[in-house]
Write a structure and sequence with these properties.
224 residues; 4-stranded antiparallel sheet; two-stranded antiparallel ribbon; elongated
Length: 224
């Protein structure tokens, strides 16, 4: 199709010549940026060292609030029947029933039911208030809550783990920090090269005015 267009003379119009130049410039610019990025890659050892420096210098970035990991079983709706079902299930759990199996079979929250009701770790501000308050009131792994009512229905939950507030271990944030360091290095290199190109640059105001003169104001009103 490109050959047909060229044979038909479509490549010779001023508009097409401009579009081809723009496309060519974009491809070459991308290649130039890729070369800069490749020339300013840092070694794994250097990236690791810089990542550790950032970790030590900015500990507040890596603070975690206290977290809990719970399993829950949900009975949808706030009807007396739903509450009775939740209370019956709680009695079964207190008698030694397997929480994960009951969650998988009975919970209306199907996404967590597939994991035995496991919600993973979460901190305050992530769940609805009543659920969150009950979850953080649990103290020891294996402890069961009472029947907890939220706008979603009635929940029964079990505490799996607690994590105290504190700074996340370096190994937990290492990969993200190294990616950040590498991105910063290449971005800085790009900025320095752009500044070099701009040195001594002059704006051709006549060319800009001639170009913009070819456009007419739109008749469509622009909303503020």
């Amino acid at each position: 199709m490109a050959a047909e267009a060229e044979a038909a003379g479509l490549a010779n119009t001023p508009e097409m010549q401009a579009a081809l130049r723009i496309a060519r410039d974009r491809i070459l610019s991308d290649a130039w940026l890729a070369r800069i990025d490749a020339q300013h890659q840092i070694t794994d050892a250097a990236a690791e060292k810089l990542a550790r420096n950032v970790y030590r210098a900015e500990p507040n970035r890596f603070m975690n609030k206290e977290q809990v990991r719970v399993r829950h079983i949900l009975f949808a709706g706030t009807t007396p029947e739903s509450r009775a079902q939740a209370e019956k299930l709680l009695d079964e759990l207190k008698a030694g029933a397997d929480f994960a199996k009951l969650a998988e079979a009975s919970s209306a929250d199907k996404s967590s039911a597939a994991r035995g009701g496991d919600l993973g770790f979460f901190q305050t501000g992530r769940m609805v208030p009543a659920f969150e308050q009950a979850a953080f009131a649990l103290e020891k792994p294996g402890q069961l809550s009472g029947v907890v009512e939220t706008q979603f229905g009635y929940h029964v939950m079990k505490l799996e783990e607690r994590k105290p507030a504190g700074v996340r271990p370096f190994e937990e944030v290492r990969e993200d920090l190294i990616k950040e360091i590498r991105a910063n290095v290449t971005q800085q290199a790009r900025a320095e090269e752009a500044q070099r190109l701009q040195q001594g640059m002059q704006i051709d105001k006549e060319a800009i005015n001639a170009f913009s003169a070819g456009f007419k104001p739109t008749d469509v009103p622009i909303k503020p």
